[in-house]
Amino acid sequence: VIESLTPERLHKVLASKAVAAWNLHELAGDVDAFILYSSAASLLSPAGQSAYSAANAALDALAAHRTARGLPAQSLAWGLWEERSGMTAHLGDVEIDRIGRSGLGTLTTDKALALFDAAWNVAEPLLVATPLDLAAYRSGPGPLPTLLAGLVTARAARAAAGSSAVRDLAAMSEADLTRLVCEQAAGVLGHTGPDAVRPDRAFNEIGFDSLTGVDLRNRLNAATGLRLPSTLVFDHPTPRLLAARLLAELAPETRADPAQDVLDEVDRLESALAAVPGDDAARVIARLRILLRRWSDAHEADADDVQEFDPDNDEELFGILDDELGIQP
Q: Do strands 126-129 and 35-39 pair parallel, antiparallel, or not at all (unpaired)?
């Protein structure tokens, strides 16, 4: 995803695609045919392929550059082939299913070769060679690619219907929203029902990464009408914690008591700490120590019980975490 992209990662992808193609362009000059293997990623913006999309868009631009100068060129923007290659050998059934649910189909080798032959009869610098499931795009949770705006027209009605759904969501309890999050998370992972996702188990323990995190965010945006950040599963690492965030967004008036807000956050913190591995406890303790010291300094006059606690005493802090949360050094 684009938030994790670095100049080094972008350069690596561009070097193997865009730079290589430009070098070939300079060396080949005027030839009988100049065919570039691009990707539908350059046009349909699949999640998790930001660098790859940019590199293939450069190939599409190169084909346009050559044809504008009277040189032969054609960029074929391929979809996913069923026959695995070095790029796709690592994809499992969950990834293939997610790609299919996004609206991109797969090509048999025979079909792909037939499309390659057909491209010779089309005098266009860019052709897209991939099956599209417009129904999946119509019902999918992710943003609609601009290229398909004229083909997929039912989303406006679905968005209008969603406004009443948001009003219903505002009346839901945190338990209801937790189940909603579990349902959507199960859908992202390809499970058949929400029971496969436990409310207090961390997302990163059940297979979520930055890409599937964005997928879950998109699904929750569509289900709630909210505009949630792409870092949602990292900021709220369990379904229960994420549901609490949704509740605060959908029904902010129920959070009028600041003290209760803090108590609720402490309860959620306790739930999150229970999932912290022992190896990471030291980092957590260091952050808690800083927070306790700041809070103690700010409330020195009113927090006599806090004054009895020494935030620099490792033994005391480990004892509290061990007794209350089961976290050991």
A: unpaired
Q: Is the pLDDT of residue 327 over 90?
A: no
Token look-up 């450069």 returns 58
Q: Which residues pair with 37 in a beta bridge?
A: 76
Going along the chain from its start, the domains and CATH numbers come out as: 2-148 (3.40.50.720), 160-254 (1.10.1200.10), 276-325 (no CATH)
Whether 164 has a pLDDT exceeding 50, the answer reads no
Q: Taking the chain, what is the end-to-end CA distance rounded to the nearest angstrom?
A: 35
The SS3 call for residue 290 is helix
Cα separation, 289 vs 312, whole angstroms: 7
HSE value, Cβ hemisphere, 13 Å, CA-based, for 229: 9
Query: Residue for token digits 């029902």?
Result: 193
pLDDT tens, position by position, 189-242: 878 788 889 999 999 888 888 778 888 898 898 888 888 888 888 889 999 999
Residue 38, both tokens: 């691009």
Can you spell out the DSSP letters for 176-199?
A: HHHHHHHHHHHHHHT-SSGGGS-T
pLDDT score at 313: 61
| SS3 (DSSP) at 326 | coil
306: amino acid identity, one letter: V
Cα–Cα distance between 75 and 62 in angstroms, integer?
8
Letter for the amino acid at 8?
A: E
Residue that the structure tokens 């937790």 belong to: 178
- Judge contact between 166 and 224, C-beta under 8 A: yes
- pTM, entire model: 0.57
Q: How many CB atoms lie within 10 A of CB 35?
A: 14
**Joined tokens for residue 136:** 């999946």
Q: How far apart are CA 234 and CA 236, in angstroms?
A: 5
- Burial of residue 163 (CB within 10 Å: 0-12, 13-18, 19+) is exposed
Burial (CB count within 10 angstroms: exposed 0-12, middle 13-18, buried 19+), residue 118:
exposed
Contact 166, 250 (CB under 8 A): yes
